[in-house]
Amino acid sequence: MTGASFRRGYQVIRTALQYGLDDMLPAKLTPWYYKLLRGSLFWLRNQHKDKPSGERLKLAMQELGPVYIKFGQMLSTRRDLLSDEWAEELAMLQDRVPPFCSTLAREAIEAELGQSIDSLFDDFDDEPLASASISQVHTATLKRTGEPVVLKVLRPNVEVQVKADLELMTQSARFVEWVLGDGNRLRPLEVVQDYENTILGELNLKLEAHNAMKLRGNFQDSDAIYIPYVYEDLCYPRLMVMEKVEGIPVSDIEALTAQGTNFKLLAERGVELFFTQVFRDNFFHADMHPGNIFVSRDHPDNPYYIGLDCGIMGTLTEEDQRYLAENFLAFFNRDYKRIAQLYVESGWVSANTDVPAFEQAIKAVCEPMFNKPLNEISFGHVLLELFRTARRFDIVVQPQLVLLEKTLLYIEGLGRQLYPELDLWATAKPFLENWMAEQVGAKAMFKKVQSKAPYWSDKLPELPELVYDNLKLGKKLMGNYQQLIDRYLSHQERAHKSNYLLITSAVLVICGTILFGQMDTLWLPCACIVTGAAVWLLGWRARPRKRKF
C-alpha cells in the first residue's frame, strides 16, 4: 500500500470514529477483538454526541468527499433499508452539499471561458442554485439569446480527492484478492477499475455534455422525459452550460401531490424509461438519484421527467443485453430452469454447475416476490440472497453489470416513493417481449439485412472482381501447396537415403574393428573399414540441407 493510500485510509477511519459511526454498529458485529482494536485508538473519540445518528452519518460522508457522498445518495433512496430520519438526512447529499466560495466559482468559470463572465452572461447569480458532491450550479442569462441558463462548474481540487479514494479502493481490492484468494470469482479489482473509469468520466464536464446531447437525441420526441439543451460551444472539461428548466424534485412528494400529479403514470414511465434506455438505446443514465430527476410542472395529469447530470452513463454488450432480456422474461414467466441455463451459457457460472440445483436455489429466492406489489418487495433483500446463492455456485461477478444493478436500486427507491402499488411485472414484461420479438425471428433478420443494405449495395459492383481474384489466388495457393509437398517428399527421401548409408558405414566399421582381433590377415578388416569410410562419406554428402518449407 502506498503512503497516499495509507494516509487516506487513516483519514477515513478517523472521520468515521470522530462522528461516532462505530456506535451505530449492532452488538453482534462488535466482538471482543473489535472492541480491543477500537480501544487502541483512544485518541479518536466521538466529537458529535449531541447530534442524531442520521446527521452524523451525513456529515461524515460529506467530509469524506465525492465517492462517499455518492454512496450516501444511493442509500437515501432505500427507505426500506433505512429509517425515515436517516433517509431524509442522506437525501440532503443529493443537492444540498455545502457550496464552495462564489469567488472560486467565478475564477474557475472564467479560467475555462478564457474571458470574463460578464462578456457572455448577464445576471450571474453568486448564490448557487444547487451544490452537489462534484460540482455546483449557478444561474445566469445568456447575452446572445436572452435565455436563462445554468453554469455547472467542478469543485476545486475535486480530482485530487477522488483519485486518492480510488487509489485506496484499488489497494483494498488487491488486499481482498490476496487474503481471500477468491479473485477469479469476485474480481474486486475489476469492479473497482470499472467504477474508476465511470467516476473519472464524471469529472469531465465536456464528456457529460456529449452524453446529455446523445440522451436528448434518443428521447427527442418522448412524452416521458425531457433533457435540457446543452450549449456545446460553451462546454469545457470543468464547465458546462445548459438550458435552465423548472421542475419539481421527484422526492418532493408533497409538491407533486399538491399539483395533482398522476403518480401511477409517472412511476410506470420511470420503469419504461429504464428498460428503453437499457434495451432500445443501450445507453442508460446510471446516476438516477432524486437529486438528478425532476418532474415537469406542466400537465400534471400527463407528467414527464426532467433528466439532469449525465456524467455517469452505462452501456452493455449485445450479448449481455440479450442474456439480460431473456433472464427478465424467464423470471417474469417463472422459468427458473431457463434462468439457470442462461447463466451457464453466458459464462456467469461454470459450465460444470449443477443446473437443477442452481434452478432450485434461484426459485427459492425469487418465487416469494410474485403476486406482491412493489411496496412489499425489496430488491435489496433479493440481491443479498442472490449473492449468498452465488457463493455456493461460484457465480462470477460481472463488472459491466455493476452500474446496471445500481440503477435498478435507484429505480426501486423512486418507485417506492412515487407509487408503492406499482405492478412492476405488468409494466416491464410487455416491453421486454416486444424487444425480444424485434431481436429474433424473421422480422429481426429482415431489419438486420435492411440495415446492411447500403453497405452491400456499395460493395456489390466489386463482387465479380473479388470472386475472380480469390479463385486465381486459390489456384496459385494450390500450386504452391503442391510444390511444398514435392519438396517435403524429396527432403524425406534424401534423409532416408542418408540415414541408410550412415548406418551401413557404421556397421562396416564395427565389423572391420572386430575382424582385426579375429583374423591373421589384415586385408579383410582394412577393406571393411575403408569401405565403411567411403559409404559414410556418401551418406554425409547425401544428407538433406536444412530449408524452410
Question: Which features would summarize this protein structure in a list?
Answer:
alpha+beta; transmembrane helix; Probable protein kinase UbiB; Kinase-like_dom_sf; 21 helices; 11 strands; 4 domains; 549 residues
Structural features, described:
Strand 3 and strand 4 form a beta hairpin. Strands 1, 2, 3, 4 and 6 form a five-stranded antiparallel β-sheet that branches. It is built from 21 helices and eleven strands. Helix 3 runs antiparallel to helix 4, helix 13 runs antiparallel to helix 14 and helix 13 packs across helix 18. The chain is of the alpha+beta class and 549 residues long. It is 60% helix and 7% strand.
Structural class from helices and strands? alpha+beta
DSSP strand tally: 11
Report, as a whole number of angstroms, the end-to-end distance: 53 Å
- The total tally of domains equals 4
Uncertain spans: none
- Assembly context of the chains: single chain
* Cα gyration radius (Å): 36 Å
Mean pLDDT: 78
| Major sheet details | 5 strands, antiparallel
Backbone shape: elongated
* Helix percentage range: 55-70%
Number of helices: 21
Share of residues in strands: 5-15%
Binding site for ATP: 129-137, 152
Subcellular location: Cell membrane
Keywords: ATP-binding, Cell inner membrane, Cell membrane, Kinase, Membrane, Nucleotide-binding, Transferase, Transmembrane, Transmembrane helix, Ubiquinone, Ubiquinone biosynthesis
Function: Is probably a protein kinase regulator of UbiI activity which is involved in aerobic coenzyme Q (ubiquinone) biosynthesis.
